[in-house]
Amino acid sequence: MARVEASSLEEPLEWDTPLFLMARAQFEQALPYADVSPMVAERLSFPERALIMSVPLRRDDGRWQIFPGYRVQHSTVLGPTKGGVRYDPEVSLGECAALASWMTWKCALLRLPYGGAKGGVRCDAHALSPHELERLTRRFTSELFAAIGPQEDIPAPDMATNEQTMAWMMDTYSTQKGYAVPEVVTGKPISIGGSVFRREATGAGVVMCAEHSCERLGMPLAEQRCVVQGFGNVGGVAATELHAHGATVLAVSDISGGVYSPDGLDIPELHAYVAENGSLAGYDRCTRITNEELLELPCDVLVVAAREDQITGANAGRLSTRLVVEGANGPTTLEADAILAERGIPVVPDILANAGGVTVSYFEWVQDLGRLFWDRDEIRIKLADKMSDAFGRVWSVAEEKSITFRQAAMVAAIREVAGALESRGIYP
Ligand code: NAD
């Protein structure tokens, strides 16, 4: 195999932001254990392509505003690219590049025939009305038209996007095609080809991983005290599932702060409160705490399901948990990873723990392509099988090589993509 010479890619590139450099460092930390050629390592270090857009929006008051939009496709080696769309003030090319590369590893680890992508619009979704969100989504989809498609790139929901966003994307794409194309997005409403159990899949997968980890660590989940950061699609469902498993959920939080009860929270009541009030703000039936305090509460299982960069060098030394499960993407920095490893606190990494979402998205795409739909039990069983298989492989690699779960998950994922890339070769 030809040696890869130092290339211009060694210069700082547009996506070389702290989050992308962190994703690349995680990849590089796993490489020595993955046994791949330099050609494969170099090729997989960078996204294959990216699209940068300016998305115009006519506000309800008649003003025009332009929002930056992005879509990064990291790898097309295993199949179409797949990944979420987020609406957030921090969306950037580098953030999308990091998240797209994690999607590649996640899909490969779960043995789904996809590469990774990620995109979004830099905006504060909560400051936009439903009509504004619809116009923004439709124009964003229109700008993306050439890049997405059922065999090209299949978006899904992420932060501040949901089933309705996917319905607008599906309708915009289908209208431009001239016929219904449900398989262009996943995470859609069931009425237009969405899958049962997709909305719950990520949070349910997080808890499946927590349960497997607890079992192997000899600490039955039903007896554990859990803390969950983030009370959205992932964290909200994870809290419900933990509660349903009989675990005690001591605290949960959202962007407005956290709520804590040493005897355990009433999770259904909290969901009802958030459904009525939009967030946890103002909930006063238990102790209010900050997000910083929540992360440091003494507990057995800490689920971080809000966003990236939450467990850092500054607070990792003060965490008082026996296990961290990453519902969010990239919530633990490299420095924090090293501190937690040193302290003997295992971290179930994002590419494994939150892979339930993309796994049921894959089931949704398969159902749409086949125009044949499965029921909830079938999907839950298929998801449990996939998660358990991936968890087992990660555990084995970690034991065999005496490395962290993150490194082991990366090794298992890199091997899948590398094998395919070695077979295909690099054109021409
Ligand atoms: P969401 O918008 O539904 O929920 C995010 C939650 O986190 C909200 O409760 C929000 O208030 C809270 N939050 C935001 N910033 C916070 C902060 N600084 N401190 C505390 N809470 C904060 O988003 P989601 O879909 O639940 O995604 C959460 C994370 O999970 C993201 O990292 C996302 O990329 C990842 N993820 C989501 C899915 C999915 O299927 N939705 C799949 C895999 C990974």
Walk me through what this model shows.
This protein is α/β, with parallel strands linked by helices and 428 residues long. The protein has 14 helices and 12 strands. The protein has a 7-stranded mixed beta sheet. It has a 5-stranded mixed beta sheet with strand order 1-2-4-3-5. Strand 7 and strand 8 form a beta hairpin. Helix 4 packs across helix 5. The longest helix is centred in the C-terminal third of the chain and has 26 residues, at 376-401.
**Main sheet makeup:** 7 strands, mixed
CATH architecture of the domain at 199-353: 3-Layer(aba) Sandwich
Tell me the series of helices and strands, N- to C-terminal: HHEEEHEHEHHEHEEHEHEEHEHHHH
Uncertain stretches: none
Give the N-to-C terminal Cα separation: 15 Å
Radius of gyration computed on alpha carbons:
21 Å
| Ligand roster | nicotinamide-adenine-dinucleotide
SSE-based structural type: alpha/beta
CATH class of the domain at 199-353: Alpha Beta
Instruction: Label the overall shape.
Output: globular
Give the percentage of residues in beta strands.
15-25%
Task: Find the CATH superfamily of the domain at 199-353.
Answer: NAD(P)-binding Rossmann-like Domain
> How many extended strands?
12
